[in-house]
Specification:
By secondary structure, the chain is α+β, with helices and mostly antiparallel strands. It contains 16 helices and 19 strands. It folds into three domains: about 110 residues, Beta Polymerase, domain 2 (2-Layer Sandwich); about 150 residues, Orthogonal Bundle (Poly(a)-polymerase, middle domain), CATH 1.10.1410; about 190 residues, Poly(A) polymerase predicted RNA binding domain (Alpha-Beta Plaits), CATH 3.30.70.590. Strands 9, 10, 11, 12, 13, 16 and 19 form a seven-stranded antiparallel sheet that branches. α2 packs across α4 and α8 crosses α9.
Length: about 550
Amino acid sequence: MAAYCPLPAMAPDLPVWTHAAPAPPEPQPLPLFMYPPPPPLPAGRRLLPWPVAHRPPPDFFEMDYRRTHSLVQFLTDEGAIPTPEEEETREQVIRELKKIVTDWVKTVACQERVPPRRVTATVLTYGSYTLGAHGPESDIDALCVGPCIANLPYHFFAVLRQILKCRPEVSGLQTVENAKAINTSSPQYLRRLDSRSWKSLSGVRVNEQIVQLVPDQEKFQVLLRCIKLWARRRGLHCHLLGFFAGIHLAILAAYVCQRFPNATANGLFTMFFEIFAHWPWHIPVDLHGQQTNCTRSDGCLMPIVMPCSPPELCASNMTEGTFRKIREELMRGFVLTKDLGSHDFEWAWIFEPFPYSTTYEQFLRIALCAPTSEELHDWSGWVKSRFPYLILKLEDNGIECDPNSSQEVDHTVVKPNIVYHWGLIPQSDTLLDTSSLKEDFMKYVINDVYGKQRESEDQGILLLAPGYMAHSCQAEVGGRVTGNPLKMGRQTKKKVFSMMVFCCCVHGPGSGVQGPAAALRATASGVAVTDSGTESSAAFGVASNMHGH
């Protein structure tokens, strides 16, 4: 029985119709789209359309279950989930590290003439390990929290460093005293901390907030593992090169889990692509679901809010070129996963390694070498921290690049070396002047290391004639063959224009000669090296694909 109910006086000409619910009908198959019958309308009146209720296909839930099971199995087969033995090793390392820190703080108490029972110290973990989404090769982000009587330059960077260095199980040790972190801590709970300690706790607090805001930890961990594996395979997981950092992916995964708490792993991974492939990136991604007052800096292309108080945007090195590739890869994932009823779907399509060698016609070749492997590790770490400057320099010259984080080795060079190949995307017929690009970049690297103490720098530039290298030399990216095997069998060649810069040695004031390997490495854990008599070099080159026989 329908009944006519007029609206209030503010809209007397628009009716609202209600009707009593009919008796429940007999059970019968329902169509894909259900339209409840509308009540009869008087003459000259219009009624807004009823909402459409979508019903999934009959075999949707069975297919969703199969896809979820195959997705978890795919992660296991690809080694994205650590084994129980590997988990036990990590826990043992953390226990041993806590024991070392406890013994260290007692030594500090004795030196400062404070009763040892009144001081304590511990180690807090954060990052992917704390979130439960780490892989077999992932590192462990750890934070040492100690008493205020400990002097940071001496007790931490000198005494504790020496204790760790003397441990036989420590294979390498690097420190950076001026490591930077975003300050997102709350002064309400951390009033007595100094500024450096205040900033260091941001990673721990962000992890705690994410864990609290995610409705299902197990589903979140599976989704985050999927996203991280996809980002690594498609060349999107390297913060220094302008792509995602681990905290970016964790917040995006938590956002999807918040919106769909009852979805399966397959559904969450599918919705990840559907949401962020069409996300309006002028709006920040916020787990609290409310408008934030955090200021968006100029050039922030993908704003993601860290779930802390006060709200702060995640640090990002993203450029126009890397932002464009991220959006293209998100859209590719959406296109591959949007068909929920596809029976021939394979997860290997989503996680297929990015084909650098067949996608780009020109490459920027960056070669780093040093006399020893240890010095190469220090030198390459410092140069890699300056890669964002090089990427911006390329874009200023009208050339976008797709920086590949995979490292290769040139076996024709005797010294230990690392070679990178970045895909170049010229926006016009602009010619890349590698001479000026290389000179500006090397000045930026050396100036950062030695400041103004470069008067006696010994630099040499060697220009090599154009040569050729086999196309198969660059077909293997990150241990995976991405080129066409049929083409790799031919004598396809790639023309390489090489230009090398030798940073032989820099004579600074004081005793000894210090090279670039004595630089501070700008990472979260960092390096403070005092090696002397080192020699490092960097080489740049532009490669153009010239397919032929």
